[in-house]
Amino acid sequence: MSAVKSSFPVRRQDFEFDEVPRHWVANDPFMTHVFNALSALFPDGERFFVASVRAVREKIEDPQLQKDIGAFIGQEAMHAKEHGNFNAGAIKEGFDIPKLEGWTRKFLSVADLPIFKNDKTHLAVTVALEHFTGILSAQLLKREDMVELIDPSMRNLWAWHCVEENEHKAVAFDTFEKIYGKDIASYALRMGIMVLATTLIMVAIHAFIVELMREDKQLGNIKSWVKGLNTLWGRHGMFSAIIPEYLDYFKPSFHPWDHDTNFLLQRWRKKTGLTA
Ligand SMILES: [Fe+2]
Ligand SMILES: [Fe+2]
To answer: What is the pLDDT of residues 121-138, one digit of tens each?
Structure first.
């Protein structure tokens, strides 16, 4: 038996969603639907990530990376399960999140177009979106003021997910570089896919928010729109603040651990009682 252990654990979770209020972020429809939109993207998105890494796993000989791939798959499968459970329950509140999960599958079906349908491109999609989720999660963990806006019934789910995104943020990247190297063709593919994938994800997030605001009969709630858009895109906004880290991805020498988030992991594991 191999003595190598994965660098991070897979934690089994089983959250309860019965007590989640209708507007569970800042008592505000727009901000709630930002997080609902992300949750609608996760189950199928994360299953795609898992499939793309699993497809090439046998090519990895490094025992440490093999173990970390196993833990990455375990973590993402658990995220997909928990967000899927939340999404199913959100119907009770009158929001059709499963419909948005269907839209997510439509967005993901772009990856089935003949020019994109190969292991290398699918893995490049995962590497790109893992960078995006990693920096967005780190942003949330840094911004305690934002975490405070999340209702206590949902806070541990998000803290757990954000911690794990940062624990495994380099696994897909390392897998890609081990198999496909750093040559100009691989680099160009990663860059092109990053632009395409983040454009699509931004369109998806904002389309989902509009749809959820419509279902919530809040399209005319100007106050919520203005405040929410400012929280996302204003100075120090949730999305605007990650632009510099997003752009770091385009440096040829970039590696996800160039952004050292270990201090956040230590702080949040302690805060939420997660094992290391
Ligand atoms: Fe995840
Ligand atoms: Fe991830």
So the answer is: 999 999 999 999 999 999
Q: How far is the CA of 46 from the centre of ligand 2 (A)?
A: 7
Q: Is residue 64 part of a domain?
A: yes
Which two structure tokens, joined as six digits, stand for 111?
A: 């990856």
**Its pTM surpasses 0.90:** yes
Measure the CA–CA gap between 174 and 180, rounded to whole angstroms. Answer: 10
Q: How far is the CA of 85 from the centre of ligand 1 (A)?
A: 14
Q: Residues within 5 Å of ion ligand 2 by Cβ? A: 165
CA distance 266 to 246: 23
Could you tell me the distance, in angstroms and rounded to a whole number, from the CA of residue 84 to the centre of ligand 2?
15
- Residue 123: what are its φ and ψ, rounded to 5°? -65, -35
Report d(CA 270, CA 264) in Å as an integer.
10
pLDDT digits (tens, 9 = 90+) for 80-89: 999 999 998 8
Q: Find the 222 Cα to ligand 2 centroid distance in Å.
A: 34
Number of domains composing the chain: 1
Is there a domain that residue 7 lies in?
Answer: no
Pairwise CA distance, residues 164 & 272, whole Å: 12
